[in-house]
Amino acid sequence: MAGKITVVGLGAGDMDQLTLGVYKQLKQAKEVFMRTQDHPLTAELMQEIPSLTFFDEIYEKHDQFDSVYQEITEILFSAATGKDIVYAVPGHPFVAEKTVQLLVSQQKERGIEVCVAGGQSFLDATFNSLQIDPIEGLQFVDAGDMRADDLKLTQHVLICQVYDQMTASNVKLTLMEKLPDDYQVYIVTAAGSSQEQITAVPLFELDRDVSINNLTSVYVPPIQDEKLLYQQFDTFREVIRTLRGPGGCPWDQKQTNESLKPYLIEECYELLEAIDEEDPEHMVEELGDVLLQVLLHAQIGEDDGYFSIDDVIQHVTEKMIRRHPHVFGDTNVTQASDVVANWEKIKQQEKPEREVSILQSIPTTLPALTKAYKLQKKAAKVGFDWTDVEDIWNKYEEEKQEFLVEVAEKADADATKQMKDEFGDLLFVLVNIGRFYQLEPETALSSANTKFMRRFQHIERKAKDMGRSLEDMTLEEMDDLWNEAKRIERGEHT
Question: For residue 61, what is the enclosing H or E element?
Fold first, then answer.
């Protein structure tokens, strides 16, 4: 005959936290199991209950808590075969008690009833000791599973299972991702008992408290300084809503998706410039400006009732998961080219009816050099591509001669459509040559532009130092200064 497991909570502190019902269950039980001996009630219970079994030694056997909890569960189910037992845990059985969750979830499979009798949670005592009201917003977090991005720092944050210095150190480092080093937090130990201790410490000292034990939690008060929330995405989103909303900014209020197009393009190019400069601070600034444009477009969509930033994030998240089956699924890849091939295959499956041409997905508004590069890459994926770079160079010579013929035939040097077409063909072949060497033409030309500006500005500075104007200088003089700038760039002495 199957027995029954009755789970009771011992509270977080002394006997006065033990409910009368739980006390009767303990006294009447023939066999009582306690998850740990490390509890303020243990000494008194050992005097009143003759048959007490503890599981502390199991913690020493395993490196992972999951293994500990699973073994405890197995022992309890085995002990309850043919008899009733009581299982006592600290606090309340349904608050931060993994073994109880395992017992409840497996009871039907094991054919053994699990009855949870309740108990007083350490949360009650903690709220009382800290004098906080959870209705204001409370986040209850396991120290072993907490992530900085999951924290709601505008709410009360209570971190449990901070049982040693190592765990406290991990909690500290995680909180430091979002909070300043001197942010005041509270170490709460044995709340509501005679051993209660509450210590306020700056965050950087959190793991220096030697009194931390398995009855310790960490309390993080809600952020009051608005500036500390500036790195939160929700704060940024609310700023954009305010700018676009009633009483907001007249300029932001009148913008449309169409009117913002030039700014998005401009900010993207400024970001590219920051990347070329290899300047992290400048990149942070320009990435922020690009993100601003994204949020503005999304807020306009929300204001008009079409979509919101949530829809944008959902769509791209779903796409990333869908197009990376080698990460989120069971597809196997060996190299980056396999990833690209899978990406294109999945993309075609997603939009089979929308594309009459493989070139159709390339935006018409792209800069011409970038568009040429992408057109060539798309065509190359189906085998329409050069196999030998020498053939491309020969094509370049062919197109150059055709262009020169058009130039020679136009005596007044005015551009004709034919000249423009042949010059375009010449540029297109150059893009092909760059692509063969894995050089993106837009960034290559941008780099050349930057280099030209740098060297020409050197000429301007030198001319000014000499008291000369560029108009009065000969081409040879300016060319000498140009070569001087080249030598300086190369680190050569002039």
Answer: helix 56-61
Neighbouring CB atoms inside 10 A of 435's CB total 20
Give the tens place of pLDDT for each residue, 59-82: 888 888 889 999 999 999 999 998
Token representation of residue 466:
């000499």
Pairing label, strands 85-89, 32-34: parallel
pLDDT score for 354? 55
Extended strands (E) in 10-64:
32-34, 52-54
Question: Can you give the three-state secondary structure of 431-476, one letter per residue?
Answer: HHHHHHCCCCHHHHHHHHHHHHHHHHHHHHHHHHHCCCCHHHCCHH
Strands 216-220 and 113-118: unpaired
Query: Please, which residues bridge with residue 159 across strands?
Result: 141, 218
Instruction: Specify the pairing of strand 52-54 against strand 32-34.
Output: parallel
Closest CA to 9 of 31, 29, 26: 26
DSSP for 304-338, written as a single string: TTS--HHHHHHHHHHHHHHT-HHHHSS---SSHHH
Give, in degrees to the nearest 5, the angle at Cα 129 between 134 and 120.
75
Is the pLDDT reported for residue 297 higher than 90?
yes
Look up the pTM and report it.
0.65
Helix/strand/coil percent split, the chain, to 5 = 55, 10, 30
Look at 186 and 374; give whichever has higher pLDDT: 186
